Amino acid sequence: MSAPLLRVEGLTRRFGGLVAVNKVSFEVQAGEVFTLIGPNGAGKTTVFNLISRLFEPSGGRITLNGQDLLARPAHAVAELGLARTFQNIELFEQASVLQNLLIGRHVHQRRSLWRETLFLPSVREQEREVRRKVEEVIDFLRLQHYRDNRVAGLPYGVRKVVELARALCSEPRLLLLDEPSSGLNVDETRDLAYWIQDIRSVLGITVLMVEHDMSLVSQVSDRVLAMAQGECLALGPPAEVQADARVIEAYLGTGATA
Ligand SMILES: Nc1ncnc2c1ncn2[C@@H]1O[C@H](COP(=O)(O)OP(=O)(O)OP(=O)(O)O)[C@@H](O)[C@H]1O
């Protein structure tokens, strides 16, 4: 097997006396859809926040494409090819869809103040490239109709797609989706499943997801890692993990279903 795109080793995060993530290890292969599941408070979002460098770990290692992610400041992870969406949508609400996507794309660009002030040909070429990529993503996610709308006025389901689009504009190698189906209705969740499958098969982007909707998880995931109380419980194909006795017990303990 080739080297994994993402390797997480012994990842630990404490909040005071609480060990939210306890020596978690897993690998994500390039081209996979890999999903973290587990009852509320299992530590899934904390793992996401550690990988996207929003939190400092208390211990462990994370490498992306062989590079030490923890050696980079949070603002530099996009350059390594990582993009994410959030459980609660994080967009510039008063800006248009297009403006949000342009911002998403600009994190990808190398900036030079003097070049930009002089608006040199290389800067103009870069601007055209930014526009081209953003329009490509708008077409891919069928957002043409909303291009010039202010984000604040859009239905929740559309705003979720805009957030996904914003992440895609940075052309990530690894896309982190934090509960992408939360707040979506049945039709929107079905569309989301198609987007995720296309993001992997058409765009070739590896997906790491946290998700509670087990039918979506089963439909799109190659492998699933179940967590509970900060620890790994089971890892494997979705059906196998859902049938695992330890996983069922962890969910029963919370009244939720796997
Ligand atoms: N910033 C924080 N400060 C203190 N405790 C935190 C913080 N973030 C998370 N925790 C705690 O860490 C534990 C794991 O939380 P986390 O949000 O990672 O779980 P989760 O599996 O994503 O849950 P959910 O499915 O409900 O989103 C919980 O007990 C939570 O209260």
Condensed summary:
The chain is of the alpha/beta class and 258 residues long. The protein is built from nine helices and ten strands.
Number of contiguous helices:
9
Q: Which band does the percent of strand residues land in?
A: 15-25%
Q: Report the CATH topology name of the largest domain.
A: Rossmann fold
Write down the CATH class of the largest domain.
Alpha Beta
Overall pLDDT metric: 89
Inertia-based shape? globular
Q: What is the terminal separation in angstroms?
A: 30 Å
Strand order of the largest sheet: 6-7-8-3-9-10
Largest sheet: 6 strands, mixed
Low-confidence stretches: none
CATH fourth-tier homologous superfamily of the largest domain? P-loop containing nucleotide triphosphate hydrolases
- What is the CATH architecture term of the largest domain? 3-Layer(aba) Sandwich
Describe it for me?
The chain is α/β, with parallel strands linked by helices and about 260 residues long. The protein has two domains: about 1-80 and about 170-255, Rossmann fold, CATH 3.40.50; about 95-170, no CATH class. Helices cover about 35% and strands about 25% of the residues. The protein contains nine helices and ten strands. The protein has helices at about 45-50, 95-105, 115-120, 120-140, 155-170, 185-200, 215-220, 240-245, 245-250, and strands at about 5-15, 20-30, 35, 60-65, 65-70, 80-85, 175-180, 205-210, 225-230, 230-235. The strands form two sheets. It has a six-stranded mixed sheet, sandwiched between helices. It has a four-stranded antiparallel sheet with strand order 2-1-4-5, with helices on one face. Strand 4 (about 60-65) and strand 5 (about 65-70) form a beta hairpin. Helix 2 (about 95-105) crosses helix 4 (about 120-140). The model has no long low-confidence stretch (mean pLDDT about 90). The site of adenosine-5'-triphosphate has 11 residues, from strand 2 and helix 1. Adenosine-5'-triphosphate (ATP) binds near residues 18 and 38.
